[in-house]
Amino acid sequence: MDTLLPLDPTLGDDTMPPGRVLGAYLAEARSECLRYLRAPSFMLPITLFPGMFYLVFGVLMAKGGADTARYLLASYATFGVMSPGLFGFGVSLAMERDGGLLTLKRALPMPPAAYLLGKMVMAMGAAAFVVLLLLGLSQLAHVTLSLAQAGALLVTGTLGVLPFCALGMYVGSLVKGQGGPGMLNLIYLPMSFLSGLWFPLPMLPKVLQQIAPVWPSYHLDRLALAAVGMKQDALAGHVLVLLGFTAAFLLLAARRLRRVG
To answer: pTM here?
Structure first.
């Protein structure tokens, strides 16, 4: 496997005027968003699949009162925003490594982080779309939220995609493009189940309940539940876990990408 080309140090952020640096970041973010909007066969499944899942299991087959409806909305929102981070980031990174695009990007006179930040903006936009879609579908289940609660869920989902971007980035740095979807599905689906996103944790075996806090999706789900008005324990701990998880996998992925292409 070819080693990535290093950036020319004379072309980095330090020697570019601030306006040009900002313009480069904005241009890369716009390019990433447009590129995926023009690839509906890739974007539609990772955005519409969570909506279909919620429609079947959270609306049509759901039974219970207002608390059950809120619980399902928060849990499926968490399930939904994981997808753009893992697949929109991880699969595309693996494929672009195989195709040599990442090597080309590293050789261009652009800020080193612009490529990855552009992908994060794309994933955040897709996550926001997923949450808005679920909020719309939740009206079929007669979920009543205040404007503040709906906004809190939207913000939680949009920012909550970042830990899964970091995880997707790391997996994308390890596997080849063709192996990316399968590997990420082996992470995405079991993690969702073990975090209590499909069934409430009290319905799972005790050992699974005890290890649920290992998964970042569990902590994001606690924040989503609080956003829709279901009281949770102290939220600062969940935020810190997600920040630590994001930082750890970003560092692991960056270290890996410095070594391989």
So the answer is: 0.84
